[in-house]
UniProtKB/TrEMBL annotation:
Record flagged with keyword Coiled coil: no
GO BP terms in the entry: methylation
Record-given protein name: 2-polyprenyl-3-methyl-5-hydroxy-6-metoxy-1, 4-benzoquinol methylase
CDD domains tied to this protein: AdoMet_MTases
UniProt cross-references to SUPFAM superfamilies, sorted A to Z: S-adenosyl-L-methionine-dependent methyltransferases (SSF53335)
Secretion signal span: none
Record-linked InterPro entries: Methyltransf_25 (IPR041698), SAM-dependent_MTases_sf (IPR029063)
Residue ranges occupied by any Methyltransferase domain in the UniProt entry: 45-133
Gene Ontology terms, MF aspect: methyltransferase activity
Keywords tagged on the record: Methyltransferase, S-adenosyl-L-methionine, Transferase
Length: 225
């Protein structure tokens, strides 16, 4: 497990503590339609951190051509879409010569609490997007992570506990998901970014922010500078 991160519960876990079997039963919540509306029909998409293919399958069904990347062989093994090329690799070490209409990096990966690692992620995005193409990032914004909180839905509960506010805009917390009588806990360590901080790191990677897809600024669109 990575420093400050870990996970417990049924089935395998990734290095950041994400539970593979939890991802496998997590539904799409409209992310596919949001992304689809921001890109041209039939776009080529490089999905970084694809997990078990929750969004991969949805974007493929909408007519896009997806290459899915994840560092976890347990995650990649569950994508199971014949038309999708899957690559097991960390994002920072991805070696791929092609460029894409869209590079997609979700799941708040941009909020990794390590500036050097974040820059590696963004440089991979910049190197793999074609001229005129787009990078879409999903970020955790300041104030989004609050606790203690219990959230319930028709599919289960999520509890945010042990929240710690750390220097430099970092936060640590425990997320506990219960679905169908099974529970998974994950310890997370995240870095909230101001608009200026994000803009600076995008520029270091050779990108510039062009717009937000949502008013809450969770979905960021960037393009090659």
């Amino acid at each position: 497990m990575r420093v400050g991160q870990g996970g417990s519960g049924p089935g395998p876990h990734t290095p950041d503590g994400s539970a593979v079997e939890l991802y496998e039963v997590t539904p799409v919540h409209g992310e596919d339609e949001l992304i689809d509306g921001a890109i041209a029909p039939g776009s080529s998409v490089l999905e970084l951190g694809c997990g078990t293919g929750r969004i991969t399958r949805a974007l493929t069904a909408l007519g896009h051509h997806v290459v899915a990347v994840d560092e976890s062989p347990d995650m990649i093994a569950r994508v199971r879409v014949p038309s999708v090329e899957t690559i097991c690799s960390t994002i920072g070490e991805l070696r791929l010569e092609r460029r894409f209409d869209l590079v997609l990096m979700m799941s708040y990966l941009i909020n990794v609490a390590d500036d050097a690692e974040r820059l590696r992620l963004l440089r991979t995005c910049a190197h793999r997007v074609r001229p005129g193409g787009s990078v879409i990032l999903q970020q955790q914004t300041p104030g989004m992570l609050r606790g203690p909180v219990v959230m319930t839905s028709d599919r289960g509960t999520m509890v945010i506990s042990d929240l710690e506010e750390l220097p430099g805009g970092r936060q640590a917390a425990t997320l506990t998901h219960t679905v169908g009588g099974r529970s998974w806990s994950q310890q997370i360590l995240t870095q909230n970014l101001t608009e200026d901080q994000l803009a600076t790191q995008l520029a270091e990677a050779g990108l510039r922010r062009t717009r937000y897809l949502t008013p809450d600024q969770v979905w960021v669109v960037a393009q090659p500078a």
